[in-house]
Write a structure and sequence with these properties.
This is Glucosaminidase domain-containing protein. The chain is mainly alpha-helical. Helix content is 58%, strand content 3%.
C-alpha cells in the first residue's frame, strides 16, 4: 500500500475517534456534583445477578422490581423541588421578597440545573420549572435495560451504572475493554443506585443536548396531557450515536414491556 494511502487511513481513524469521544463529552455530564441526593433503603444493596435468571420473563420482572422503586423515589424528589419552585414563583408574582434561606437554596438549584445568572428572578424560576420535572418510569426503564443489557453488564453489576454514563477524570470509573487508543473516557462508577439514578435524571433534565425532551414534556404538561416515555423518547436523539434508530428501539421496548410496569 502506498505510504500516502496508509497515512490517509490513519488520519480518518483518528478523526472518527475524536468525533466519538467529543460526542460522549458533549452529551454526558462530566463530573457530577451530587449535593442533595435522596437515597432509598435499597440504594446500597448489591445489584441482583440478573444473568442467573434463565427465564427471560422472570429476569425482566426482577429487573423492574429492583429499579422501579428507585425511579419513583427520584421522581417524588423532583416533584418536591418543582412544588417548591412553583411556591417561590407565586410569592414573587405577588410582590413578596424571597427569604434569605430561600435565596440560598435557589442559588443552589440554579447551579445544579445550570441556569444562567444573567436572567431575572422570574426568568430563573421559569427556567427551573422547565428543567425540574419527572421522567416517566417506562422511559427510564427502557434506557436502563437498553444500556445495561437488562442489568447484566459489568458496569451495572459492579458500579450501579445502568445508564451508560461516562466520566472523564482518571480513575472515576471503569476503563471500557473496547476503548480506542488515545481515548480518555471511563464508564462512571457510583457508590449506590440512588446516586446513579439521580445523576442520570439530572443529566436529562439539565444538559442542553436533551433540550428537545424537556420541551416535549413542557408542551404535554401545559396542555394537561400525560407525560409518557414514548413521547419523551423523541427527545433522546443525542443520547446515542444511533440517533433515530436508538429512539425507535426505546419506543419499541416501552410498548413491548408495559406488562411489567404494573407488576
Amino acid at each position: 500500500m502506498h505510504k500516502w494511502e496508509t497515512l490517509k487511513i490513519v488520519l480518518i481513524a483518528i478523526g472518527v475517534l475524536v468525533i466519538v469521544v467529543f460526542n460522549a463529552w458533549l452529551f454526558t455530564d462530566k463530573e457530577p456534583d451530587l449535593l442533595d441526593v435522596p437515597e432509598t433503603e435499597q440504594a446500597e444493596k448489591p445489584v441482583p445477578d440478573f444473568s442467573s435468571f434463565e427465564n427471560v420473563n422472570k429476569r425482566k420482572a426482577a429487573f423492574y422490581q429492583y429499579l422501579k422503586p428507585e425511579i419513583e423515589k427520584q421522581n417524588e424528589y423532583l416533584l418536591t423541588l418543582r412544588h417548591y419552585v412553583q411556591t417561590l414563583k407565586r410569592q414573587v408574582s405577588s410582590g413578596h421578597e424571597v427569604a434569605a434561606k430561600d435565596s440560598e437554596r435557589l442559588s443552589w438549584l440554579a447551579k445544579e440545573y445550570r441556569i444562567t445568572k444573567d436572567l431575572s428572578l422570574p426568568q430563573q424560576l421559569d427556567a427551573l420549572l422547565l428543567k425540574i420535572d419527572i421522567l416517566p418510569v417506562d422511559l427510564v426503564m427502557a434506557q436502563a435495560a437498553n444500556e445495561s443489557a437488562w442489568g447484566t453488564s459489568r458496569f451495572a453489576q459492579q458500579g450501579y451504572n445502568f445508564f451508560g454514563l461516562w466520566c472523564f477524570k482518571r480513575g472515576c470509573g471503569f476503563v471500557p475493554s473496547e476503548r480506542n487508543d488515545g481515548a480518555a473516557h471511563e464508564v462512571a462508577k457510583f457508590p449506590n443506585l440512588s446516586r446513579a439514578t439521580y445523576t442520570y435524571m439530572r443529566n436529562l433534565n439539565r444538559h442542553y443536548a436533551y433540550k428537545e425532551l424537556r420541551q416535549i414534556r413542557a408542551t404535554l404538561r401545559n396542555n394537561q396531557m400525560p407525560i409518557t416515555g414514548y413521547a419523551l423518547a423523541e427527545g433522546l436523539l443525542n443520547y446515542s450515536e444511533r440517533g433515530a434508530a436508538y429512539v425507535e428501539e426505546l419506543q419499541s421496548m416501552i410498548n413491548f414491556n408495559q406488562e411489567y410496569m404494573t407488576e
